[in-house]
Automatic annotation (TrEMBL), chain C:
Protein origin, superkingdom: Bacteria
Keyword Amino-acid biosynthesis set for record: no
Record-given protein name: ABC-2 type transporter domain-containing protein
Keyword annotations of the record: Membrane, Transmembrane, Transmembrane helix
Bilayer-spanning residue ranges: 20-43, 55-75, 96-118, 130-155, 167-183, 216-237
Length: 228, 363, 243
């Protein structure tokens, strides 16, 4: 578990990362409530956006490894690509899960109206994994860290808007409403809606299931080993 | 050679294009959440196929997924395009056709579906044949390459054997000369030396005269046998630089100037044979292809290298590639650790440089 | 004026920075298109379609990030990679820095103008006063460049300066209340109105559209004043660093 340990250490080594990983989630708790929309406080609606950002920030560490040739050295080390990838991903998901715990249970402690914090936490967890998987698939295309981050940032804004996380999906025209389903952010928004109105438990399972399917698909795509 | 795109890339592109088609159908069609999960599941299978080489029976999973969705959505029918394609891609065309017909008649409404399946089947068969052919060509090329490498190996072995044989022959010859000298000259000369030593101690003039006569006889005999030995051993054929000179002399189409410098005896036999064929080949080339009037052949031998340069004053630049004769010479010179370079600027110029191996000489 | 001969190349470098073009031109175009789809036909009581307001906001928001390219060019040319070469050249380095700034401001304004052209001719947004809009856009561009340069000069680590410039952009968008309403107290009210370049410029354009010329000029002049003050700050900081 050496790689796991160092992946954790590296994630916290840089100032920007510490801000991203600790201050922003805490700031999320303190954002105000919306009037009509969103149903949860703003911080909880936008936390999905933050999860996407944190996902790419963490995943670029793997890209950095590739850039600096660490992957090449690992290829000759007595360690398999699977071990390298799984331990890194494990470390990142633990960080993401910790953030979710801070945000959800911090909100509970402060007395925010979160309806069902347990389910909310599970939803954020599923979405964190999906976000990490998407980021992993994304960086497998790139060689340069900054370029991948900047382009991903613009992509995030577009899918967040189209997925109905930033703007309520009800005001979309019909076609865009259908297209929105393609984006993982749509499922997060749906999940948040479920938390507030809590209909059938089956719907919630379906939402999580879709997020997990996205996770598996993108992990398969992103697990490709690129040495250069 | 510029590398074209791999055919497998197109196979994968087709798979993902199908996903695009399904999503299109879904957006235009029922847009139910449950059928979107069908698309996600098919996408999962496609990703797995893209990353790993799955066995044929894995299409059963696709078929099962689509089968369970039959009652719920039309996309499930279209989804069968994937297993049809995969089966055809793996060469199971009959199964593929069977599946095609089965699903089509089970649904039996949309003629569009027929064309959809048909293109999947067609592209699957096409990719199968294409990939198969590529595989065959690859095996073929590999075999040819192997044979070519073996041939080259044998060539180099032969050249080395040639070199070692000439060395052996030289050693045998040295041994023969030594034996000849020992047998025919040695005894007489030793006898003469002994007789001369005896002559110093002899007092009687009669005896001394006899001994002197004996010495004279022996020396005469040994001189004669030396001459005979040398005569017997001098080869009738021309070797070394003489053979080169004779080649040049016998070549009468062009005006040839032959220059040489250095100690020709330093050059071993196998190098002479290379130099000779080099001169012959080049002169033939000049006679065949060049409009030159004058050829300069320059042979320099130093302590460590032999350098042969052949230069004409021709202007023709027709031969851009190296002919097989010169190529084989190039290879032979390389196998001796030397090099043969050809230039077409300012007339045709061939320079052959072979290092002289001192250890070989002293062995 | 040897510096003038470098202007062409500075302009070329800017036009060839694909990531900047992607972030400041392609992304806003996509977002504008998406918004125009979403808001198509939505007209409130005032009679002006929502999309007009949204595209104006978008154009101005992306001006907040216009300083990043000037920042990276100046950092590369005068502090790190090309520093020695630039100082070996027979021209005034300060003037060169100014020329990069001017180019960057023009470039940023041009991108803004392109967005306006796109939204007018493709999405059918009506801009009331082109000249005023471009004036405000250029003010925003200059302000953003000056702020970015102040970060570059005052922070040792360039990475942190880059992050700060992002904070400047996103921070003022958040303070303007575009993501969610800010709490109501004196501090946030000030930063959501006269203390925020984004709301100032939006207000100036809105007032010009409603023919409140006095108010419009007042808000634009606040921006201009901020530019002048920050320019002096930048000069003082820059002299220490470059001179």
């Amino acid at each position: 578990m050496t790689i796991f340990k160092f992946a954790l250490k590296r994630s916290f080594s840089n100032t920007t990362n510490i801000i991203f990983l600790t201050l922003f989630p805490i700031a999320c708790i303190f954002l105000p409530n919306g009037e009509e929309w969103p149903f949860l406080p703003y911080g909880y609606q936008y936390f999905g956006l933050l999860i996407l950002f944190v996902g790419i920030r963490l995943a670029t560490i793997i890209l950095e490894d590739r850039e600096k040739g660490v992957v090449k050295r690992l290829a000759v080390a007595p360690i398999s690509h699977f071990q390298y990838l799984s331990q890194n991903l494990l470390a990142y998901s633990i960080i993401l899960i910790l953030q979710c715990i801070i945000v959800v249970y911090g909100g509970v402690l402060l007395g925010k109206e979160l309806y069902q914090p347990g389910w909310l936490f599970i939803l954020y967890g599923s979405f964190s994994f999906a976000s990490l998987a998407i980021a992993l698939a994304w960086i497998s295309i790139y060689r340069n860290k900054d370029a991948s981050f900047l382009v991903y940032m613009s992509l995030i804004f577009i899918i967040v808007v189209l997925g109905g996380l930033l703007i309520p999906i009800e005001i979309f025209p019909d076609l865009l409403k259908r297209v929105a389903v393609i984006f993982p952010t749509y499922w997060l928004a749906e999940g948040l809606k479920w938390i507030v109105f809590s209909e059938e438990i089956l719907d919630f399972l379906l939402i999580n299931g879709v997020l997990w399917l996205y996770t598996i698909v993108f992990v398969i795509v992103g697990s490709i080993r690129k040495i250069n | 050679m510029k590398k074209l795109m791999e055919p497998l890339l197109f196979v994968n592109s087709w798979r993902f294009l199908m996903m695009g088609a399904f999503i299109h159908l879904w957006v235009l069609g029922d847009s139910q959440i449950s059928s979107f999960i069908l698309i996600l599941l098919l996408l999962l299978m496609t990703c797995l196929r893209w990353r790993f080489a799955l066995p044929v029976w894995f299409v059963l999973v696709d078929i099962l997924i689509c089968f369970f969705y039959f009652p719920y959505t039309d996309i499930a029918y279209y989804g069968f395009a994937l297993p049809i394609f995969e089966l055809a891609l793996k060469g199971k065309c009959l199964f593929s056709l069977f599946l095609c017909a089965g699903v089509f008649f089970a649904q039996a409404s949309s003629s569009f579906l027929f064309w959809f399946f048909f293109q999947a089947f067609f592209f699957g068969v096409f990719s199968f044949i294409f990939l198969k052919n590529q595989e065959m060509y690859r095996v073929d090329i590999d075999e040819q390459r192997k044979v070519r490498y073996e041939l080259e190996r044998i060539k180099i072995d032969l050249l080395e054997a040639n070199q070692s044989v000439s060395h052996q022959a030289e050693l045998m010859e040295r041994y023969r000369i030594a034996r000849e000298l020992h047998d025919h000259l040695g005894h007489d000369l030793t006898g003469a030396t002994l007789a001369l030593q005896a002559y110093q101690y002899v007092q009687e003039p009669e005896e001394a005269k006899k001994i002197l006569q004996e010495v004279k006889n022996r020396l005469e005999r040994s001189t004669k046998s030396l001459r005979e030995t040398v005569h017997n051993m001098t080869p009738m054929t021309r070797i070394g630089v003489e053979s080169l000179e004779s080649v040049v002399r016998n070549f009468q189409q062009k005006d040839i100037e032959f220059k040489k410098s250095g100690n020709m005896l330093l050059v071993p036999v196998h190098i002479w044979s290379l130099l000779e064929s080099c001169v012959k080949e080049t002169l033939t080339n000049v006679a065949k292809h060049s409009n030159a009037t004058k050829v300069e052949v320059d042979l320099q031998v130093t302590e460590s290298i032999v350098r042969l340069s052949i230069k004409d004053n021709g202007t023709a630049k027709k031969l851009s590639h190296t002919g097989s004769g010169l190529r084989s010479l190039q290879m032979r010179s390389r196998s001796m650790g030397g090099s043969l370079s050809i230039s077409h600027e300012n007339g045709f110029l061939v320079v052959c440089v072979i290092p002289l191996d001192k250890e070989m000489l002293n062995r | 004026m040897r510096v003038l001969s470098t202007v062409k190349f500075t302009a070329l470098r800017m036009l060839r920075s694909y990531i900047v073009l992607l972030l400041l031109l392609v992304v806003p175009i996509i977002l504008l298109t998406v918004f125009s789809f979403i808001l198509s036909g939505a007209v409130p009581e005032s009679g002006v379609p929502y999309i007009n307001e949204t595209s104006m906001t978008q154009v101005l928001v992306f001006q907040l990030f216009g300083g990043s390219i000037v920042m990276s060019l100046i950092y590369n040319d005068l502090f790190t990679e090309n520093k020695i070469r630039m100082y070996a050249l027979p021209f005034n380095q300060t003037m060169y820095a100014f020329s990069i700034m001017m180019c960057g401001a023009l470039f940023s304004t041009l991108l803004g103008a392109l967005l306006m052209v796109y939204s007018q001719f493709v999405l059918g947004v009506m801009w009331q006063n082109w000249l005023w809009m471009i004036y405000i856009i250029s003010l925003m561009a200059v302000l953003s460049i000056i702020v970015c340069l102040i970060f570059t000069f005052s922070v040792k680590n360039f990475k942190i300066a880059e992050r700060l410039s992002e904070v400047y952009g996103i921070g003022f968008v958040v303070l303007a209340g575009l993501f969610f309403p800010m709490p109501e107290n004196g501090f946030f009210d000030f930063l959501g109105s006269y203390g925020n370049p984004l709301t100032l410029s939006m207000g100036a354009i809105r007032d010009m559209g409603e023919s409140n010329i006095g108010d419009a000029w007042f808000q634009a002049n606040i921006l201009l004043g901020a530019i002048i003050i920050l320019f002096v700050v930048m000069l003082i900081l820059g002299r220490r660093k470059i001179g």
